[in-house]
């Protein structure tokens, strides 16, 4: 690659499939993997004039991808650790005590018991595990439309069952790992 578009295009076409496969194997998520691969190619493009010394470009790209994925995972771990270090009572309103969150949790769990098994499974995958509808659909071998229907129906049931407490559900989902 001599800093030209055609050279970069040739490298992209030659290595994109292999890097995507490596990313998929490491992340187990196609969308995240494609994002990571594109980030690596973006960095390569930005540094294209400094890469003349690279002897084995495939090895360089794969190692760059691995390093990028490791960096991203480290940042996620650090973010999680920072959240865990924050005392519960300092988050959100100072008027809400841990006891109030536990009461809200009980109301939430009672409302969850009104869902069918499949509705509850899909709702929890979405809200508590943070999975996208596409990921849930792939995981359960069902259509995204079905996932969307289950989430919509579940949300309506929870809203009806939780009443005024439903508004606090998004906050509760943030704290669930600390309350259970």
Total DSSP E strands? 0
Q: What kind of sheet is the major sheet? A: none
- Percent of residues in helices comes to over 70%
Series of secondary-structure elements, N-terminal to C-terminal: HHHHHHHH
Overall pLDDT: 81
Q: Would you kindly provide a written description of the structure presented here, covering whatever features stand out?
A:
The chain has 180 residues and is mainly α. The chain is built from eight helices and no strands. Helix 4 (98-112) crosses helix 8 and helix 6 packs across helix 7. It is elongated, with a radius of gyration of 22 Å. 14% of the residues are buried.
Essential attributes:
8 helices; 180 residues; mainly alpha; elongated
List the helices and strands and how they pair.
Elements: H1 5-27, H2 30-46, H3 57-85, H4 98-112, H5 117-127, H6 133-140, H7 144-162, H8 169-179
Helix pairs in contact: 1-2, 1-3, 2-3, 4-7, 4-8, 5-7, 6-7
């Amino acid at each position: 690659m001599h800093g030209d578009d055609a050279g970069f295009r040739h490298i992209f076409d030659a290595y994109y499939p292999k890097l995507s496969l490596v990313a998929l194997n490491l992340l187990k998520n196609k969308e995240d993997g494609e994002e990571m691969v594109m980030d690596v190619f973006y960095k390569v493009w930005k540094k294209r004039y400094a890469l003349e010394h690279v002897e084995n470009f495939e090895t360089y790209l794969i190692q760059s991808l691995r390093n990028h994925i490791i960096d991203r995972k480290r940042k996620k771990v650090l973010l999680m650790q920072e959240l865990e270090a924050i005392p519960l009572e300092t988050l959100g309103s100072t008027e809400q005590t841990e006891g109030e969150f536990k009461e809200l949790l009980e109301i939430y769990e009672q409302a969850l018991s009104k869902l069918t098994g499949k509705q509850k499974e899909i709702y929890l995958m979405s809200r508590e595990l943070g999975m996208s509808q596409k990921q849930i659909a792939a995981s359960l071998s069902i259509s995204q439309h079905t996932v969307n229907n289950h989430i919509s129906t579940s949300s309506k049931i929870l809203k009806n069952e939780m009443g005024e407490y439903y508004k606090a559900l998004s906050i509760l989902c943030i704290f669930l790992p600390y309350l259970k």
